[in-house]
Design brief:
Layout: E1 2-7, H1 10-27, E2 32-35, H2 42-53, E3 63-66, E4 68-70, H3 81-88, E5 100-101, H4 110-125, E6 130-133, E7 155-158, H5 161-170, E8 182-185, H6 188-192, E9 197-201, H7 207-215, E10 233-238, H8 244-249
Parallel strand pairs: 1-10, 2-3, 2-6, 3-5, 6-9, 9-10
Antiparallel strand pairs: 4-8, 7-8
The structure holds 2-amino-2-deoxy-6-O-phosphono-alpha-D-glucopyranose.
The site of 2-amino-2-deoxy-6-O-phosphono-alpha-D-glucopyranose has 14 residues, from helix 5.
Length: 251
C-alpha cells in the first residue's frame, strides 16, 4: 500500500515528514528508527530538532540505524554519514549516541564490515518502526545501486558514476576526485522488513525516477521500485518531484 503526500515545496514536505517520524516516536518511545542522509532529509531533521526544542519530542529511548556509510571515511570526516547525522540531528537532541548505529566506514575488511552491521541490525533493531529513505537519481535506496538482483543483506557497493557525480555536486565541494567510490549499505531485505517506510523525493531532478519507481515495473534495475510490494509506504514529496500521474495512480 502506497500513500502519496504531496506538498507545495521543500519546507512543507519536510514538516509533514517530521510529523510522521514524531508520531512513530510518540506511539512508541522506544521506537527503532531507520535514518537516511543526503540533501533531501536535512529539512526533516531540522523540523525534528525544533520539536525537541519545543519539548514535544523525546529521543532518550529511541534507537536509530543508518542506511549507509562511505568505505574509508571515519566518523570525524566532515563528508562521512556519521558526521552528517551528528551535525544535522544527534548533536541537537537528547538521543543516546551509543544507541545510534552507522556502518563502520573505517573497517577495511568489507566482508567483516557488512557482517558486523547485519549483526547490529539483528540485535539492536530487529525491524524498524519507521524507515526514512531518499531516492538516488538512478533509483537507488541506501546505496543499493541498480543490479541484476535485489540485495538482501548489508553489502559493499561500487558507486555508479551518476551517484558519484550527484554526490560531488552536492557535497565534497564539487570535487569528483574526493568522493569515495565504494560504500557499505544496508541491504534491501532489511529495509523491506520495516513496519513503515517513508520515502522522500524533492526537486524537479527526482520527478522522472519517482515515476519509474512507482509507475513502472518492479525491477532491481530501479531498486526503489520494490517498495511497490511493501504493505505500508508513504511517498512524500514536493510538487516538483511528484507528478500528477503518481498522485492519480495511488489515489
Ligand atoms: C545518497 C544516499 C541515499 C540518498 C541519495 C539521494 O546516495 N546514500 O541514501 O537517498 O544520496 O540524495 P539526495 O537526497 O541528496 O538527493
Amino acid at each position: 500500500m502506497i500513500q502519496v503526500i504531496r506538498k507545495k515545496n521543500y519546507d512543507e514536505i519536510s514538516k509533514a515528514a517530521a510529523d510522521l517520524i514524531a508520531a512513530a516516536i510518540l506511539l512508541n518511545p522506544e521506537a527503532k528508527v531507520g535514518l537516511a542522509t543526503g540533501s533531501t532529509p536535512v529539512g526533516t531533521y531540522a523540523e525534528l530538532v525544533k520539536k525537541y526544542e519545543a519539548g514535544d519530542l523525546d529521543f532518550s529511548r529511541v534507537t536509530t540505524a543508518n542506511l549507509d556509510e562511505y568505505r574509508g571515511l571515519g566518523g570525524d570526516h566532515d563528508q562521512s554519514y556519521r558526521y552528517f547525522m551528528n551535525t544535522n540531528l544527534f548533536d541537537h537532541v537528547n538521543i543516546d549516541k551509543s544507541r545510534t548505529f552507522v556502518p563502520d566506514g573505517t573497517e577495511e575488511d568489507a566482508e567483516k564490515a557488512c557482517r558486523d552491521y547485519d549483526a547490529i541490525l539483528e540485535k539492536e533493531i530487529g525491524s524498524f518502526d519507521i524507515q526514512l529513505l531518499g531516492i538516488g537519481g538512478d533509483g537507488h535506496i541506501g546505496f543499493n545501486e541498480p543490479a541484476d538482483n535485489f540485495c538482501v543483506n548489508t553489502q559493499c557497493i561500487r558507486l555508479e558514476e551518476q551517484t558519484i557525480q550527484d554526490n560531488a555536486r552536492l557535497f565534497f565541494n564539487g570535487n569528483l576526485d574526493e568522493v569515495p567510490t565504494e560504500a557499505y549499505t544496508m541491504g534491501i531485505g532489511f529495509i523491506m522488513r520495516s513496519r513503515k517506510i517513508l520515502i522522500m523525493a524533492t526537486g524537479a531532478g527526482k520527478k522522472e525516477i519517482v515515476e519509474k519507481a512507482f509507475l513502472g515495473p518492479v525491477t532491481p534495475w530501479v531498486p526503489a521500485s520494490i517498495l511497490q510490494l511493501h504493505p505500508n509506504v508513504v511517498l512524500a514529496g514536493d510538487e516538483a518531484a511528484i507528478s500528477d500521474a503518481v498522485v492519480e495512480k495511488y489515489k
